[in-house]
Amino acid sequence: MNESSPAREGSLDAPTRHPLEWKTPAFWEQAALDAELERVFHICHGCRRCVSLCQAFPTLFDLVDASTTMEADGVAKSDYVKVVEQCYLCDLCYQTKCPYVPPHPWNVDFPHLMLRAKAVRHRNGETTTAAKLLSNTRAIGRLASIPIVVEAVNWGGRNPVMRGAMEKTLGVDRDAQVPRYDSRTARKRLRHLREDDVAVPAGPTTGKVALFITCYGDYNNPQMVEDLATVLRHNGVQVKLLKKESCCGMPKLELGDLDSVEKYKNANLPLLAAAVDDGYDLIAPIPSCVLMFKQEIPLLFPGDAGVMKVKRAFYDPFEYLMQRHAAGLFKTDFKNELGKVAWQAACHQRVQNIGPKTRDVLNLVPGTEVVSIERCSGHDGTYGVKKATYANARKIAKPVETRVKNAAPNHFTSDCVMAGAHIANGLNDGTIAEHPISLIRKAYGI
Fold first, then answer.
1. pLDDT tens track of the chain, all 446 residues?
2. Does the global pTM surpass 0.70?
3. How far is CA 411 from CA 85, 229, 296, 428, in A?
């Protein structure tokens, strides 16, 4: 902490985010990293208002309280990794809790400090082979969705013996919800998509959308992508698929594998930028993928004009629909009521600073009551499936599960389908997590 900086409790200034200077040698220096970790840990220890967000902060505070000094300087630097391992980069501490984010002079960005620590560990060869494999979502999806292979993979995900083997070899907890794979991928389902609508601009939107269908949307939940395309077309929006996109890079970012993030960026950027140049807006159905292009990639490559062009054109699906609604171009010809809907607000959607647009669109459906649950699911990539962290993930999800139970809804939904499945698995009462865009299609009756 800079003792010469004016000490003040929090800040009234709008928060800002500094780019990650990962191309500089200083970023990778262990001594400099340890010094910054101790500085920020000292500030967090003196504040503690993030204690309920995730397991990273209780882990830190327990280490401090058990140290000889009962201050951050008493924590062994070798124990810093225990805190880093519990952070899954949800960003909620930065966006919703921390009073010391820049431009406050203390300049605390806890998630990006954790990312730096993960990156240093990865470059030092400390990432396990299993973690590297689990983060290759597109490669796994291509293999697992092959028609003959898919049944064996899905069977293995339900078989206790196979789950035991997965736990031993890949570190995937045998009780964790693992995704099913679909041989009828989103790309196969939408290969005959026609761009025959007349594009009508509305606000900042062009009325033409290129879908970044995502690894999960293509191989695990193609129905979600099909429903998104159907709802957009019902609202007079031209829709096309991007050709041969790569992973957005979020799974690699969570490992600290920034070189792979750059590789994926280099593969995706020409396709995305070309679509924008042709007058298309960009949409992905998974909040984490949207966040990559809106925030994380721009902060990693702040000087790249193409990255900034793509950032400006990228939308969350419901952010896009509300832009159309504001211009009077969103259809409200709903045929079916939805009743009570319990909606878990996904972390990576909340931190986009767009407001609860999903709730706002669902509320346009007559006969619909939305119960908003703004708590983390605890899933967050592989954190919610790994044996080492599964118990913590279940603990974090418990308050959400309780609120879903108490709501007794007709539908339970989350924009993050992985978070939704994780919560539904914890409920263990037959509840099925539905994507909100699928609920909108159901309300339209199309």
1. 444 445 566 666 778 899 999 999 999 999 999 999 999 999 999 999 999 889 999 999 999 999 999 999 999 999 999 999 999 999 989 988 899 999 999 999 999 999 999 999 999 999 999 888 888 888 888 888 888 788 888 888 889 999 999 889 988 989 998 889 999 999 999 988 877 767 889 889 999 999 999 999 999 999 999 999 999 999 999 999 998 899 999 999 999 999 999 999 999 999 999 999 999 999 999 999 999 999 999 999 999 999 999 999 999 999 999 999 999 999 999 999 999 999 999 999 999 989 999 999 999 999 999 999 999 998 877 888 899 999 999 999 999 999 999 999 999 999 999 999 999 999 999 999 999 999 999 999 99
2. yes
3. 34, 21, 32, 15
ω into residue 270 within 30 of 0, thus cis?
Answer: no
As given in the structure block, the two tokens for residue 354 are 């767009």
| Distance of alpha carbon 155 from alpha carbon 309, whole angstroms | 43
Domains defined for the chain, CATH in brackets: 25-123 (no CATH), 333-444 (3.40.50.1860)
State the residue for tokens 């504040």: 47
User: What is the CB neighbour count within 10 angstroms for residue 395?
Assistant: 12
| Residues 393, 386: Cα–Cα separation, whole Å | 9
The phi, psi pair for 339, rounded to 5°, reads 70, -145
Q: Is the dihedral of CA 411, 416, 419, 421 positive or negative?
A: positive
